[in-house]
Amino acid sequence: MAVCYLGLGSNLGNRRKFIRLALERVGALEKTKVIKVSQLYETEPQGFIAASPGFINAAAKISTPLSALKLLKELKAIESELGRKKFKGLRSRPIDLDILFYGNKRISLPYLKVPHPRVTERDFVLRPLKDIAGPLIKSLSAKMKVISKISSMREFIRAQKIKGRTIGFVPTMGALHQGHLSLIRQAKKDNDRCVVSIFVNPIQFGPKEDYKKYPRDLERDSILARSAGCDCVFFPDAGEMYPENYLTYVFVEKITDCLCARLRPGHFKGVTTVVSKLFNIIGPDIAYFGQKDYQQALVIKKMAEDLNMPLKIKVMPTIRESDGLAMSSRNAYLSAQERLDAAVLHQALQKAKEMIFQGERNSRKIIREMRKMILKKKSAKIDYALVADARTLVPVNVIRGKTLIALAARIGKTRLIDNMVVC
Ligand code: AMP
User: Fold this and answer.
1) Under a CB-based contact definition with an 8 Å cutoff, are residues 241 and 274 in contact?
2) Cα–Cα distance for residue pair 169/166, rounded to 1 Å
3) Cα separation of 288 and 380, whole Å?
4) What is the pLDDT of residues 126-175, one digit of tens each?
5) Helix (H, G, I), strand (E, B) or coil at 234
6) Going from the N-terminus, what domains does the chain have, and what CATH number goes with each?
7) Which of 172, 190, 314, 315 lies in the 20 to 30 Å Cα band around 272?
8) How confident is residue 123, by pLDDT bands cut at 50, 70 and 90?
9) Looking at ligand 1, which residue's alpha carbon is closest to its atom 6?
10) Could you give the CA distance from residue 303 to residue 297 in angstroms, rounded to a whole number?
11) Which of helix, strand or coil describes residue 119?
12) How far is the CA of 11 from the centre of ligand 1 (A)?
């Protein structure tokens, strides 16, 4: 008998019913028993069209005498039995069944990889699996260090540097998603070691902002970070970073007067201060930031240049959901309708790109068009829609040279940003 974990997902028809029917059929396989089933979780469709509903996902622990290949064959038969009837030809499927773990076995065939590669990379597998396989999940990030003291972090770094290893660093506030993971993968590709900080930095939040409710889940983040190649997570608490009598701040002028700074006074001072401290603690060779936060990346680059910080800053492209919405930890706050509406930010940027491609150079006309599109969504309120010089962030009336088109809007109560650079 082998103990296995299965992943179940459905995004068509009566999704809960399909999960239940699939579990019944798995339980009816030769001498196979369903031992435990996770809760059902609603997750974003990934790689599917925006109009399709989210997935319902679950995980199940089973025992079976079937070999992995025989089990796979039976699961495919259940998929096609439940899928074939009503939904012929559609890309979305009423039921998707995967073998996540088959005992301790490692299998690498073109049509079957066990443990399933998505186990550690995707929330929709990880969340249900956590319900029924806590210790197994913990072991997935066991090889990675999680350090919360500055002195221990320095020791870790010193040991790496003595061996001549280079350090790639990705600062984050946690609630990791594929955007963060793309930075981690790049950091690991370019360097011998990758360090990720997870720190919800209190001094970059305004008094009415979401500091307290910002999502925090170290275990989940550690597994995701590990799967992308992280060697060490730095996870200090606020007292470690800002002890009593803390008095020192780092501040970049001018390019922090505009865009996000107008509605978030003090935000960039908080960001540059924490990033300088992290650079001093970790001493990376290269630090990685996302273009999604264009202004932040520009401010950090300027700070590193002006203060002669001995490192390189790399800015990586924005990773998006299938409908174009830029991935963000704050997307989790959106209701189902707001989530659909939120795609309008990307659509407005695409519209701007199209207008520029067709020869439009007048910023006002482009901004007017973007605003019109966004405000068609009842849930949307615009914070800013701007066309600016991509280096100085000064608004421009006529598009010439490297230009930033930047948007910030509230969708319901959630503030989202997005941008595009045109040359
Ligand atoms: P945060 O955890 O939101 O502070 O983000 C940490 C880093 O991840 C920042 O450099 C962000 O710009 C970057 N990041 C956030 N979202 C994305 C995304 N969708 N694509 C690429 N990078 C991102």
Assistant:
1) yes
2) 10
3) 31
4) 889 989 988 888 787 777 899 999 999 999 999 999 999 999 999 999 99
5) strand
6) 2-140 (3.30.70.560), 145-316 (3.40.50.620), 329-422 (3.30.1300.10)
7) 190
8) confident
9) 172
10) 10
11) coil
12) 28
- Does residue 172 line the site of ligand 1, with CB under 6 A? yes
Write out the two tokens for 158: 């010193």
Atom of ligand 1 nearest to the CA of 182: 21
Ligand 1 centroid distance, CA of 318 (Å): 8
Return the beta strands (E) in 369-413 as ranges: 380-389, 403-411
Among the listed residues 116, 177, 180, 346, the single catalytic one is 180
**Pair 224, 181: CB distance under 8 Å:** yes
Can you read off the two tokens belonging to residue 156?
A: 């870790």
Residues 6+ apart with CB under 8 A from 279: 169, 287, 304, 309, 311
Q: At 67, phi and psi to the nearest 5? A: -70, 165
Using the structure block, give the residue that is written with the tokens 């196979």. Answer: 32
DSSP class of residue 394 equals -
Check: CB of residue 226 under 8 Å from CB of residue 143: yes
Residue 42 CA to ligand 1 center (angstroms) comes to 23
Question: What would the pLDDT profile of 176-199 be if each residue is shown by its tens digit?
Answer: 999 999 999 999 999 999 999 999
Using the atom order of ligand 1, give the atom closest to the CA of residue 174.
Answer: 2
180 is catalytic: yes
- Whether 346 lines ligand 1, by a CB cut-off of 6 Å, is no
Give the contacts of 15 (CB within 8 A, at least 6 positions apart).
53, 55, 56, 94
* Whole-structure pTM value: 0.85
